[in-house]
Design brief:
Layout: E1 15-17, E2 43-46, E3 49-52, E4 57-65, E5 70-74, E6 79-87, E7 91-98, E8 109-117, E9 122-129, E10 137-143, H1 150-163, E11 167-173, H2 185-191, E12 199-202, E13 206-208, H3 214-231, E14 236-245, E15 248-257, E16 263-271, E17 274-275, E18 278-280, E19 288-290, E20 294-295, E21 298-302, E22 310-311, E23 317-323, E24 333-342, E25 358-367
Parallel strand pairs: 3-9, 10-11
Antiparallel strand pairs: 1-2, 2-4, 4-7, 5-8, 6-7, 8-9, 10-12, 12-13, 14-15, 15-23, 16-21, 16-22, 16-24, 17-20, 18-19, 24-25
Amino acid sequence: MKLPRIFAALAALTVVFACTDLLPKQDTGQDTDEQTEEKPDTFTIDPTSISLECTESEFKITVVSSSKEYDITIVDEWITEVSRSGKPATGETIVFHATENLSADAAPRSGVISVCTKDGNCYPVTVQQAGAFTSKVLAMRFTATWCGYCPYMDEAFHKTAESNPDFIYVTFHASKGYPLYFADSDALVDAYNISGYPTGVVAGWKQVSNYTDTDYTAGNISSAMENFRSHFPAAALINATASASDGKISVDAKISHNMEGTFKVVALVLESGIVQAQTYYPTSGGSKTLSDFVHDNVARKTLTGSILGDDLPENGELHWETDIDSSWNRDNLSVLIWTFKNYGNLRPFKETPSYPNEFISNACIIRL
């Protein structure tokens, strides 16, 4: 069985308003104090808060109004209305378009869509869009199926990802001869001086140790993320698409950056939801085999020429293709892309001197 996890439930806010009108009594020819039931009006907006990536995109809201007429007012020029479908009484869906926010100095921005009823009440829908150079922090987890302490770091990585949307991770099974072994990880084991499992590496910059207290380890990962971001500005933008058809994966990416220095790129195929037996050492002592342990974000194939990074072409445009292995679950595949940058004048902030002379400036995972 899998270790218990805390799943963060994300629910869209719905604004509900009700009003009642006293209906006149029907003339039945009899005197009565009984009056007809009050009939509430329904007015809802779903969702009332929207988060967007920095790329051009469309999004929608649904308004349900049983009797109130309303207008849509868009406060910001980068948001425009595209179309409407359905009926207000049962739910009218309004589709909007957001322009890209990709300039080198583009900061995150906020917009407002105002839904105003004819009786003069207005209700805001807030739209948050990331700036071009808003980075994700990539962590690597080196593990093995025979490693009884590895499930603890697995749980800590999951906890961090569930509580922080800017954290993403990749799992490297680096023990030769054991299930899920990924041969290309040997080069990373050497580069990051991995001497035992599990070991975590945040942004190619800092090593994270393992503890049976998974909250403590997750806290260390979060602290490493905060420290990394305080020293390293978001330096690269990855705009990528990936698709799978006819037994092949196709990936197109455009990478741009706003800092001087040498950049390299790495791309991998990942698979999640792999059920594979895992050794586990409970804190009470002894050893167990978890036959139904689920392994996520497992490295399956390197798309770039080297897992240590290919040189980024001058135009930043990249394309990769690969066959889908018959042992992979097509529905659980994704593509991970990350960019290395040399330290340059940021060298004084190098957390682990023995690590390579590049840090991971940005990363993204694209679901197929």
